[in-house]
Request: fold
Amino acid sequence: MREYLTTERIDPTKRLVVERTKDFGEIYEVFDRDEAATQSDRCIQCGDPFCLNKCPLHNYIPQWLKSISEKDLEFAFKLSNEPSPFPEVMGRVCPHDRLCEGDCTLNDGHGAITIGSVETHITEAGFKAGFKPEFPGITTDKKVAVIGSGPAGLSAATYLLRSGIAVTMYEKADRAGGLLTYGIPNFKLDKKIVERRVKLLEEAGLKLILKCEVGKDVTFEEIANEHDAMFIGVGATKAKTAGLSGESASNVYAAMDYLTNIQRKNFELDYDKKFDFKDLNVVVIGGGDTAMDCLRTAKREGAKSVTCLYRRDEKNMPGSKKEYKNAMEEGVDFTFLVSPKEIILNDNGEAVSVEVVKTTLGAKDESGRQKMEVVKGSEYRVNADVIIMSLGFDPAVPSFLAENGIETNAWGGIIIDEESHETTTSGIYAGGDCFRGADLVVTAAYDGREAARSIANSLLK
Reply:
């Protein structure tokens, strides 16, 4: 260990831009055994590890780095899979630069350990070696229903099954995974990775019911009567709007509608052909990871030009620096410090451009972030054939919540006891984006894990 003085940080090899933009395959290669061991050997084994503390799941990062440096893959696999329901997913999609790697002690002049890439290596190499996460089988007479199969739901199911509790999962889509399947493009997360985890849960006893919308295909009451507890993880799928004139034009789309339809296309399923943007000028409004996903997807779909409009500067973008860099490499144009004022329509009511006004960043507010100020008289127009709005998401509020005494806050988030994750209705728990608003996969996984532990403690006491 502590080889940071003689060994530099290395990132995983990326496919060449000219190659990777022709398809939706993952762009990063997985570390091999020697690459993972070399990076792990740089860890200084801090007495108070900042990486572990910054991780929402509190993954045993120093411990599995030490195991990999010593080439003990089996122990590293067990350590990695203990606090995390799907570490190979986290290794691919977490914003490591803002979490574990961002707080790595070696960031101070030496370059953080490539923690995310080692995390991916551990599980991928472990699966290849025949290792599997351990489940005891259904050892109790308790049954829990999970509504939603996204990160929070899959995490809850994982830890309930580890407790020997039977789980039935209800998902309205045709495939499990939620955001992992229909929200994150293949070039970041191959869907076979998600399918493999779901299959492991089914082997462990999960009963998965697809194409079943609670409140429509089955009532909430029916599910409640058949189970000892319930977990709600329905995500946040209601797109935020900017309130711009012209925003309702037929060629102005919500980000998740676009990503979902293109994923359906990649699955060779029916999809809405209006989302074929080949040879079109595409403008995306927003600067988060979902905006980056839309931009990079449009490039792969053969758009004539792809432009991102963001009201602040590059340093203040909410998205991962890694994803911004990848988008830049792939030919996306970024226009910073502009705020949309109006969407300009033609005589047929179709959007043809976005009128923007230049902005500047002024004094910092109470949160420490610089305030955005408009530059008067700086308006101009950005031409567009299609416009994608990527401004974030709020929870959609199913009617079965209020009907069953499950309270929500002003913006639709489910109110929970943040220690137990129990809602205002006894025996009903919730977590993930339907509680937090649009957030990270790792925080949804944390909520699912903690809720499952609370449920197990309640049912098995």
Q: What stands out?
A: Residues 441-460 form the longest helix (20 residues). The chain has a mean pLDDT of 96. The chain has 17 helices and 16 strands. The first strand starts at residue 143 and ends at 147.
